[in-house]
């Protein structure tokens, strides 16, 4: 039984690389310039999402440590169990028309919409990571600081925050990898326009949405192979971030 | 300064609560109650193939993923010291779901007679979900009290005997947790099935090589192609069902964890 498991699992590892490298042999010609737009699009959406989510997740995590009641934590836990597609659904019905009426131009399917919902998607994970970091350290320092007369807020702010560097970076990387790999939100909310967004409310396209769009279109031309290159790129990015986090945790 | 910090915390909480409230109320606002209840019977009837499709998908992918996941977890926890394999499992756990779907899609090209189908989607979702099960099983076995294992050794039991008779019964809760996590994840994932075999009007699949429908895809389809409020209701009900499934399974997964620790 274990040998089967072992084999199956080595098999998993080699297959994606083989499949995608094979397709790589056929280099897309038009593709390379176009792919660049998608890659930048993905980065723009994810970076903004993480920037939006980070302050709020730090604030939330601190609140969860400080307050006596567990309700905020419960809400965060529930948020982690909401499927991504539900965030997309809700955003498409409410956020998009709202943004459409807010800004003069654009359809509402925009960079901002994507990043806002990505931020919401990523927020629970980041908050939980930071919360765990805060909590363990707080328990550690609690008696010392209270005996010195510091309130909880002061303890958190001056003593523990400076120690949080590693946790914050972990949370950021986790959030970023989640955001960049997310398909449905980007597909539904970004407008999927083939150019770089000129403003927050302009449409754009991400790598992940591009894969789905090309697959659905079923075009058999050169551009088709772009999906394999994107897949490989996404895989490499996720491996890179995972390795970084792994080394970090060991060191 | 501490007061500023306090303000920051409160702003975060309020922002989150407001965002959730606005979204929830907004969605509910979109529903015309009368129209909703008039049409609810047809909507639910039409959603049955999608429900069954999701159930089949989750069942088949769990059947594939659970034995492999638990087996690999046990192997990694008890029978080997190498970190490399664990590292690979962690990589697999972190890959975006669409890469898994793409991999399934690639398999169609490489394997001569394969097409997009229920079986292919189930395999890809199984691959998506196996790392979670492996991680949880491995962690469960590794955090068992040493005393248990040592007693077994002193009685002359082999590693496999110790694992099977001493540790696994204790780890049952955590393994169940892993299974719950896997089921929830399999039910909600959209990207993988988008690329490997879900369509909007397949009916109930009778063979493993049929195309199928699934609840997350119904939501996606409605969101991108709705022409009237009624289409939105489809999405709304599918969402409700989906949220119930995932919240229930993930909640069970968490509660079992707490009970065991306490």
Report on the architecture of this protein.
The complex is a heterodimer of chains A (251) and B (262). By secondary structure, chain A is mainly alpha-helical. Chain A contains 10 helices and no strands. Chain A has helices spanning 2-24, 31-66, 71-80, 84-102, 111-147, 152-160, 165-181, 184-189, 207-217, 226-250. In chain A, helix 4 (84-102) packs across helix 5. The relative contact order of chain A is 0.16. The mean pLDDT of chain A is 77. Helix content of chain B is 81%, strand content 0%. Chain B is globular, with a radius of gyration of 22 Å. At the A-B interface, helix 1, helix 2, helix 3, helix 4 and helix 6 of A face helix 1, helix 2, helix 3, helix 4 and helix 7 of B.
Give the SSE layout.
The complex is a heterodimer of chains A (251) and B (262).
Chain A: H1 2-24, H2 31-66, H3 71-80, H4 84-102, H5 111-147, H6 152-160, H7 165-181, H8 184-189, H9 207-217, H10 226-250
Helix pairs in contact in A: 1-10, 2-5, 2-7, 3-5, 4-5, 5-6, 5-7, 7-10, 9-10
Chain B: H1 2-29, H2 33-78, H3 84-94, H4 97-110, H5 118-142, H6 146-154, H7 159-188, H8 191-196, H9 215-224, H10 229-261
Q: What general outline of chain A do the C-alpha atoms trace?
A: globular
Overall average residue pLDDT of chain A: 77
Structural class of chain A: mainly alpha
Helix count of chain A?
10
What would the keywords be for this entry?
heterodimer, A: 251 residues, mainly alpha, 10 helices, 0% strand, B: 262 residues, globular
Quick structural gist:
The complex is a heterodimer of chains A (251) and B (262). In chain A, 77% of the residues lie in helices and 0% in strands.
